[in-house]
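Incident review: delayed structure delivery

Summary: a single-chain prediction request sat in the queue longer than the usual turnaround. Root cause was a stuck worker, restarted by the on-call engineer. No data loss occurred. The affected request and its eventual output are reproduced below so the record is complete for anyone auditing the incident later.

Affected input:
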Amino acid sequence: MKRFLALALILASCGGAFAPPGTAAPRTPANPNLLLATTTSTQDSGLLDVLVPDFEKKTGYKIKTSAVGTGQALAIADRRDTDVALVHAPSLELDFMAKGAGSRRLLVFHNDFIIVGPTDDPARIKGKNALDALRAIAAAQTTFISRGDNSGTDVLEKSLWKQIAITPQRPWYVEAGVGMGQTLTVASEKRAYTITDRGTYLARREALQLTIVVDKDPPLLNVYHVITVNADRFLRVNKAGADAFADYLVSPEAQTIVGAFGVDKYGQPLFFPDAGKRDEDVGK
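Output delivered after worker restart:
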């Protein structure tokens, strides 16, 4: 009896470290604090509000999120001020990886960019492809609101102007320097055009006087990757936590959540799961 009581006391003092047979042992990360730098679109769309609590519940990690443009998110990572990044500007991501700042880069999901504008469509761009639409906006000098923040959206938009050899100018071209949700609000207030990811637009549509005028054009594909910061280069990085979050995002459970997100409210998913695909096969 004494031996039994002694064993019981030992198990109790372990705080539940030993689980009964057939149950999963509680997860107790050595460092439960995890820093995530991500884009405003994942936050403004509401996707993070679903994924982060699910991840925390499953793993025991606690995430602190910085939602900024992709360029700023990668700059934060380059300063060793985050452990993992969820971003959507492939050209910037590849530069980040090439200099050894990132360890793993995994394809997670995609949605698409769209051009939205006033319902009366003053530049008459509805039905045009993205490049012809921008040409028409420039020719009419109709107000266009740019993110202007080196985000993934901003990088995509600037690349489109470059493809048509147009350097947009004030006063019709305005750089807001704010996140996607705020940019949409400015465009709505000024009766202007802008480029946005579909998810953020749908999440905020009811508060906007904007309609979709250009979409479903291949150059407007919007692809997201998760990148773990290189712990060999930056010793204070929470490598275990970063790997856990990256593995979670590409897991079947998280991919199911991504694919279902938005369907009940908007009648369509806001993002499309892509884990396991090659980048060149996204959207096919």
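Verification: Confidence is low (pLDDT under 50) at residues 1-23.
Action items: add queue-age alerting; document worker restart procedure.
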